[in-house]
Write a structure and sequence with these properties.
The complex is a heterodimer of chains A (about 30) and B (about 80). Chain A has about 30 residues and is an all-alpha fold. Chain A contains one helix and no strands. Chain A is rod-shaped. The termini of chain A are far apart. With about 80 residues, chain B is mainly alpha-helical. Helix content of chain B is about 60%, strand content about 10%. Chain B has four helices and two strands; from the N terminus they run αβααβα. In chain B, strands 1-2 form a two-stranded antiparallel ribbon. The longest helix of chain B has 16 residues. Chain B is globular, with a radius of gyration of 12 Å. Chain B starts with a helix and ends in a 7-residue tail after the last helix. Classes of the chains: A mainly alpha (about 30), B mainly alpha (about 80). The interface between A and B is medium-sized, with 15 and 21 residues.
């Protein structure tokens, strides 16, 4: 099931998502 | 230099995860981020495992920075 997380191939996108979220959080914090 | 900027930025993001300023990020720190980041627990686990290259269960600033660099498309080599 390619939509299932943890399949390995998802890591890159998830990593990007993670860092993007952190950057957004950082930018949004006072 | 680019590397300095990367390291500084990575340090800031690292500090967001490492709130107690332990100098490393454990899985518990990551699990705490679930409430604040739009990611599933499985995905955070994925992120943690892909950053934790030596697999010791702790993310050092070095590992975190390397992962951040690869996210930005930068090679680890100078």
């Amino acid at each position: 099931d390619p939509t299932k997380p943890g399949a390995g191939v998802t890591s890159e996108g998830v990593l990007a998502n993670f860092f993007n979220s952190l950057l957004n959080k950082k930018a949004g914090s006072p | 230099s680019m590397k300095e900027v990367l390291t500084q930025k990575a340090h800031e993001l690292f500090a967001l995860c490492d709130r107690e300023n332990k100098g490393f990020i454990g899985k518990r720190d990551m699990q705490r981020m679930i409430q604040e980041l739009p990611l599933e627990p499985d995905q955070l686990e994925d992120v943690f495992d892909s950053l934790d290259v030596d697999g010791n269960g702790f993310l050092t600033l070095e590992e975190f920075t390397a992962g951040f660099g690869s996210f930005l498309g930068l090679d680890e080599a100078d």
